Please model this.
Amino acid sequence: PDCTIWNLGLNGDTAIVWHLNADRSLHTARVIDLPRASYMHDFTATARHLIIVLQPWVFERRGMPFSSQFAWRPEMGTQVLVIDKADLSRRRIFELPTFSYFHLGDAWEDASGTIRFDVAAGKDVAFAVEGARVMVAQRGSVPGEAAVLNLITLHTDGRAEMVSSGVTAEFPKSDPRRGGLPRRLTAHVAGERPDRPLPTGLATWDWDMGRPDTFLFGDAQIVEEAVFVPRGPDEADAWLIAPSINLAEGVTELHAFNAARVADGPVATWRADVALPAGFHGVWAG
Model:
């Protein structure tokens, strides 16, 4: 919310922590040590802390393809490294059962210092290692199970817990005005199945109410990550703008959903003349 930017640059068991000012000038860039050389695609942050999730998919050797450099070591469990933004030497490590992940939701902490964030958690890295290759080759069965949306809570006494929503989910997104601040709503893609390893819909999950709000297009659509566009003060008073590839028509579409009523389906859809290459992440630029 203060318009500063934090980012990580990884090199095995070390990382560069980049901190940019609101005007995009460099504030600091510092090298830190990590407890393990974990594969990391994403991290998250609260107003006061950086949250780095270290899954037990760890660097083992140089090689190609890229994923062959890492070994899945489930016996190591998953660690969460919490670093104080004001002093990067101040850190805590929390231990959790083994899970894999690509994407985290925005984190937040309450007045007591308890930290919460959501994660699209998987059981292993079968999809990362073999699933993507099978899809690109367009032959064979895609291994692995779809990720499930979970909420992780890091308590001030050192305990960590992980609660599953039970819903299949990827690309967790939230109100960008609430980055690092308390929230209840997570938007995500939905509809992956063992015989359909790509999203076919969009959904939100309300952590306060413990309930989903889901719309599935059906197997003729591949749905990509939505962009969260606030309208009013409440989290649900927003648009979710989500691209998809319409396989039946062979074109790309762009859909606008009411974040408060996702199950009602798109309130508007724009259709391109062609099918654009499938992407992952999007953001509005001004």
Notes: The mean pLDDT is 93. DSSP finds one helix and 23 strands in the chain. The radius of gyration is 19 Å. Residues 126-137 form the longest helix (12 residues).
